[in-house]
Amino acid sequence: MDKRAFFIQGDSLLLPVNTLDTQIDAGLLFELSKYFKNTDIFDIPELDNPSNLISVVSVPVTAVLPENWKSIPVRSILSMFSVSGGRIGNTDANRIVRACHIAQWRWSSRFCGTCGAKNEDVPMQAQRICPKCGRTEFPRICPAVIVLITDDKNRILLAHNKRFKARVYSHISGFNEAGETLEETVVREIREEVDIEVKDIVYIKSQPWPFPSSLMVGFKARYVSGTITPDGDEIEDAKWFTKNDLPELPAEGSLSRYIINGWIKGDL
């Protein structure tokens, strides 16, 4: 069988323009790598089946695509899987996400962060070692919480972040800080961004999110007190919504949309 690989550039998947959506998760024939220069080509084992390899052709972000090629953000691919019946945790989607995360890490970890020497690969592992000082490096994973906040009137709190597309509202979220539990991150981020207090913090689900290097960790919490006051820094607007009066929501395939859908169905 001809070897196939995922062609990754930054946080996007590269494909010939005539590739069908149903073929995205199959990878491309490895021989197509001849159209690109200065690539980083590697194999990485699947996490749940190390005997199966994910082959990747990582293309520099500065490379110009050949004629009749296209670039699709991996975020959009996650949405495609959801629409076509996939879901968070879909095996094929996870292969693409893993390829994207490792490809980006490899570009940023070419040199030792301690002494500056060029790192060496550990074969068939997501690991690099400095031949000069012995520093070992693994892919960076940054935990971030995302929180379903509800009140006693069966409403959900959603906010518009300045980075979002116009009119899109989603959950309060933020990165975990050093020395902080994830539950403490939930309380702090909500307090900082909308100035309210919550209780009954419960874990829901997580999702790898290499845009870049994140792990989204979903929680739910109940409103206790305070008046919603957007911080004006990140959050432009925040308000309570009912199931019959929802704003434009995040795309399918994201953990944020998964949580909102679960709340709408009454599962969360």
What's the architecture of the largest domain, going by CATH? Alpha-Beta Complex
CATH class type of the largest domain: Alpha Beta
Strand proportion, as a percent range, falls in 25-35%
Structural class: alpha+beta
Distance between the termini: 45 Å
Number of separate domains? 3
Q: Please work out how many helical segments DSSP would assign.
A: 4
Order of SSEs: EEEEEEHHEEEEEEHEEEH
**Unreliable runs:** 83-89
Kindly state the number of beta strands. Answer: 15
Q: Gyration radius, to the nearest Å?
A: 21 Å
Taking the sheet with the most strands, its summary is: 6 strands, mixed
CATH superfamily of the largest domain: Nucleoside Triphosphate Pyrophosphohydrolase
Mean pLDDT: 92
In helices, the fraction of residues equals 10-25%
The CATH topology of the largest domain is: Nucleoside Triphosphate Pyrophosphohydrolase
Textual characterization of the structure:
The chain is of the alpha+beta class and 268 residues long. It folds into 3 domains: 4-108, no CATH class; 111-140, no CATH class; 142-265, Nucleoside Triphosphate Pyrophosphohydrolase. It is built from 4 helices and 15 strands. Strands 1, 2, 3, 4, 5 and 6 form a 6-stranded mixed β-sheet that branches. Strands 10, 11, 12, 13, 14 and 15 form a 6-stranded mixed β-sheet that branches. The chain has a 3-stranded antiparallel β-sheet with strand order 7-8-9, with no helix packed on it. The longest helix has 18 residues, at 91-108. It is globular, with a radius of gyration of 21 Å. The model is unreliable at 83-89 (pLDDT under 50).
